[in-house]
Structure formats: structure tokens, C-alpha cells
Amino acid sequence: MKINLDKNLLTAAIILLFISISNKAQNKFDYYEEYEKYQSGDSLQWKEMEYNDSDWNYYINTKMDFISSTLWFRCKIITNSINIPSGKLGLSISLTGTYQLFWNGVYIGNNCSNGNDIFKNNGILVQTLRFPDSLKILRQNMLAIRVSIPDGQKVEFPTLEINHIDLLSEVPTTDTIFLLILFIIHIMLSVYYLKSFRKNKFQWQHFFFALLLVLIALNIAFEMIAYLIPITYKSIILVDRFDTYLVFLLLWSFPLFFALEFNFPAKYSALTISAVFIFAAYFDIDTRLYFQVAGLIPGIIIILWALYKRKEGGINAIFGMFVFISILLSRNDITLMKISFMIFPFFISISLSKQYFRQKRQFQITKTQSARLESEMLRKIIQPHYLMNSLNAAVEWLEEEPQKGVEFIQALSEEFREFSRTSNLKLIPIQDEINMCLGHLKIMKYRQDKNYQLFEENLNYDRTIPPAIFHTIIENGITHEPPDAENAYFIIKEENLKNGIRYRVISLYASNLEINSVKGLKSSLLSGEKMQSENTLDGTGFTYIKARLTESYGSNWNIISNSYDIGWETIIEIYNKN
Amino acid sequence: MNILIVEDESRSAKRLKRLVGNEITNYDYKIFWEKSLPSALNFIEKTEIDLLFLDLSLKGEDGFDLLRQIVSKPFHTIIVSAHVERAIEAFEFGVLDFIPKPIIASRLEQALKRFYEEQRTNNLTKYLTVKNKNNLEIVLVNDIKFLHSNGHYTEIYSENKSVRLHDKSLEKLLMILPPRFERTHKSYIVNMNFIKKIHSLSGSIYKLELTTNEILPLGRSRAKYIKNRLLEL
Fold first, then answer.
1. Interchain contact, A393 vs B60, CB within 8 Å
2. In terms of C-beta density within 10 A (0-12 exposed, 13-18 middle, 19 or more buried), how is residue A285 classed?
């Protein structure tokens, strides 16, 4: 099955993830950075090992101000692995700007895309370069970087890795592998949910979730792009701007997803406020990070509300949110924040799966119940008591008064036809149901030699009703006719309720009563004494009625049966969805 | 002859009435019609009938409760019903015949013929019911050793039980008892499973010895037939 294949790929990807992380242990070149410092300005003296940089600024992970657009980094590297030939080692570096590199005062390379002049060039963002064979690796080393930064660009300390060249050159850094795997996982999950949505149209959450995953994957891709292709920082600025909008969309999609999933009442206002919040944040560069967090507040509110209302999936969402914020607050790293978006999918996936399987099961149960109702309805007209008695009467009419016999057969055929047509429908127009009732009364006329009549009162023919409900009640009305009743009259009345609709189906038995009009019938019923009232009816006829009502109206209905000395009344109430 | 039809549907009752009327040409008869079980029981208390046509499912009630009472009565019952699945159960209680709906004239003719000719129509009877003061007792046919005529009633002798009295005549009971029950004497029906030996005495007098040690008379004209039957078994 395709779904299992995806799951296996997912598992494989996760395993790869762990392997790639463990790669770090294979770092053959053992070193650490004693300090990282920077100074704006430009002087070639600064490349020298012995230069006194005690008044230089330590690099702190926040934005830095700088006066000129040129600056130097100095990074002291301590190592014990002095015996590895330098030709076998290399340096992998990621830095925004155009730069030249100096190792212990020796020039070792640059990242200019064209030539050597750092002031006239765009620099390649991510680079791997091999140390020259002649380079000396000492216990204490100084890596000096001379950088030309474009105006308006924030300074970030370069990301460095020094290692065996074989471990560096072919493969991007372990962080990149991690990101790559995350990207793959997100794309795969997205495909899985899109396929699932295609198969089950009722699971719209899967579609939105898939979109969310694609957005996250794109975000990850932008993070990685510099590591995978030699892209210049000017291009990166564009990519970064695009990524900014992407993150905005992402931050807004979370409350959107949750608002839709949990059916949050004030959806539109919440999402508008959220959008304004996030959008405003992007104009304020200084506190961008904190506003990104603030932008999540609508999402948090929605999730907390969902928890309070004990909505399904609320706990999963709150876990996700909790983990996400913890990461955010513990590491003040925008890159990490972007990566942390991926926390959500795993938690949301869990609740989506649960929801999906529950809904699918419910769907199957409903389908089975509908099939059962269809066959139950058909069984009504073929069960022996009904069918054989009808045929017995038909044979009698045919032998005694052939013309009447033919009419009776026609009436029977009509009933069979209507039942066959409507048994697999959940709702039919009121008119069709009334016609079926009239058809039934016609048949019973031929069987019982009585003139049954049906009166309608106040019926709205625009409405629909599940099939054979009135029919069953009327059928019961005839079956339970007192033996000495000369005739039976049926009334179907519609009444409006504040929160729905009420149908009264009344069976009146005439023995000595002379009943002429509906008004007369109404008053007769009211004056009669109520003998018993039931609203937990369990006869087989009522089981069918209850099942049909549940099929179409869930639990929004009620049925009561009252018996009087001159008849029966069955009341069916159907309530509006609330 | 009084015939009672118990049927809740008018047209079906009319059919039965008409077809029965067509069949019975040699007798004076009256057909009565009751629509429900209670009114039928009431009628039976007041009027003696010779034959009953009973529909098993009236107004959703289960006619079987009535059936068990009815089969203890002196008259025979023919079931007319749409529900063929319960036919066997009805036969086990000793009804005379079962006519499915829709009623076809030929089938009714057959049933009535059996009735008149006192044919043995039912070999499935497992139980007889006997009215015992105010309750109904069920007699297992397998346990019956022999039956003895006592005027209009029949004494039933069963293994390990006291004598019970059935309202049907010996002739009527014979019609619904299984084949191993044979008329051995004008006053006796014997369950051949209980026959141990035939005693042949001087003067063409025959006696039956039962496995339970009773000695019963065996009619001279029936002796040969009984002997042959015993050989078959």
C-alpha cells in the first residue's frame, strides 16, 4: 500500500538524520575557538598572528553597529591535531560579504566570484577551501578575515568548520544534512496529506496542513540554499526578502490552521489581528524576533481556547506550541526559530491521524447503517405477512371482480416501485412520502374493505423527510386498529416550532362516530382522554423510524406516541442544527 | 357443522369463506368469522365448533399462545398463514394441516378432504396439550404408551405419569398422531414402540402385552395388520 511506503521512507529519513548527527563525532580535526573578535576598518596588519587585538570587540550574537563597510574578524583557534598534513585539511565557511582569508598571517583564499578585489565583487556565500600544503598548523592559530560588507547589511560572524578535506568537500556541513532531511520529511508529509485529501474529500484539514508543510519546506530550502549552490550574497538578499514574506505567511498560517481546525468562533477578527501584528513587526527591524513571537499570540489564544473547550487535537497543539516557544526562548537564533516551525507538524500529525481514523470509522458506520436502513425498508413490503396477505387479497379480487383485482395489482405495483426508488435515499420530498401513504391506504382498502382516508394539514411541500416514516406510522395505525372499528382516518399535520418543525400523525378509529371534517376530527381528538404516553417506543416499526431520523438529523429529533380512547397520535419533532 | 375462521383481514376472511363454501357441498354448515384472538376464544367458549381455521399472526400478536390452548380442544385446527417458517412448529403441536397464503382452492380442497375422510394428515406431532383444571399441560407424544377412549374424551397413558384426559375423540387424535400409533381396538390406540408381545389366545382372542406390563385387548380384525406393522418396525 502506498501509505506504508511513505511511512517507511519517513522512518528511513529519520534514521539518516540520526546518522548524520552522529557524523560530528567523526571530526578528525580536533579544535576549538578560543575567541571571536571583530573590528571595523581595514588594515593588513590585522592579519598577523602577533597583532594585539585586546581592544577589539567580542562578537555577540546580536546585531552590531559598524561605521565603515569594511571590517576584520579575528578568530583564535586552538588545536592538538598538529600532525595532520595541512594539505589534507580544509575550511568550510559561510559569511555574508566579500572576504579574504588569512591563516597565521598567510593569505589562503577569498570568495570573490570574479578576481581578487573584495571591493569590486560579489562574494559567494558558502565556500569550502583546502589549506595549502605549505600551511603551518600550530597549537595556537589565528584565522583573520577581511570582509567588505554591502551597505545596510547586518553583520554576522562566519560559520566555520575546519576538518579533513574529504569530510568537507563533497558533503555540506552536518547542519545542512539535517536541514536537507527536514526538507525531505516535510515534502513527503505534504505529499502524503495531499494524497490523503484527494482520497477523502471530507478531510479538508489535510489539505491545509499539506500547504503548511510546503511553506515550512520552502523556508528550510531557503536556509539551505546557500550551502548547496554557490550563491552570492546579493542574490541571497533577494532570497532573504522572499523568505521574510514566507515566514510572515507561515506565522499567519498557524493561527489560520488552528482557527479552522478548532472552529474558533471569532475566526475572521483573530486572523486579521494576527496578520496586522505580524506585518507590523516586519517594519521594526530591531525587535523583529520578539514580534515574531508576539505574532504567535493569536495562535496561542486559539489553542488555549481549544484546550478549554476540550477540543480534539488541543493537547497536541499545545505541546507543539510549548516546545516551539521553549526553543525560541532558550536560543536567540532566528535560524533556529525558522527550523523550529517543524516541531508543529509532528504534533499536529498525531492529532490529524487520530481524527482521520475516527472520522473514517464513523463514515463507514454511517454507510453501513444507511445500507441496512435501505434493506430494512425494502423488507417491509416483502415480508410474508404483508406480501402474502396482499397476494391473497389480490387473488380473491381477481376471482370475484377481475377489474378490481387489476386495480389492486396496480396499486401494489406502484407501492413496490416507490419503495424500490426511494429506499436508498436519505430524504425525500414530503409530497412523495404523502403519496406513499395514500398508496398504502389504497392497498389496505382492498384488503380490509374499509374506506381509509388521509387528511393533510398545513404541510409545507418544500420540505423533505426520511422515506417511509409516515408510512410506517400509518401502517402501524392500521395494524393496531380495534377489531370493531368500522373505519380509520389519518391526519398528518405540520407545526412550526421555535427551533424546528413538528409533525403530528394521528390515527382515528370510527366505530359509531360520524366524522366529516378535519376540524371535527381535531376537536374529537382533543376531547378524548389520553390513555398513555410513550417516548421510548421500541416496536420494530419505531426502530426503523428512529434509525432514519438519526441517519439524517443526528440527535436533533424527538418522537412521542400518545394513545387516546379513539385513536393514536405520533409526534415527530425535528430540530434545527445548533 | 360449525366452522370458525379467525382472520383479521376482511378480504382474506372472505376468500376463505367463499372457497370453503365452494368445497362443502354435502353438509349443512355455518361459517363464523372472528377478527381477533380474544374474541375467538370467547366465541369458542359459547359455541361448539367442528373445525377452526386460524391465522397465526393477527395484529402482530403471536397466535402460538392461542394455538397451544386451541389444540387441547375437541375440534381440529387448520392453520392458514403467510408465515410458512412456523408451519413445522404448528405441526408439532398437533394441528390438522397448514395452508399457506395466498390460499389456492386446490390446497384447501385437499385439506378439507383429509378432514372428512379422517385421513392421518400429520406425522410431526410432538406434543399434545391437555387442559388441567386451570392450566395447560404439555404431553410428550414419545412418552405416550396408549390412549383409551372414554366417551367423548380420551384417556392418555404415559410412562411414569398419571392418566390425563384429552378433549378430542380417539378418532380425531389418531389423525394427528405419528404413524407408530395404531388403532388396535375400537377403544384403544397404542404406541407400537411400547408393544412387547402379541398374545394369541383360544377363541381368536388377542392381547397386547406392553413393555410396561399392561395387557390390552387387540381387535380380531386388526390383529393381522398390527402383526405386519410390528414386523416392519
1. no
2. exposed
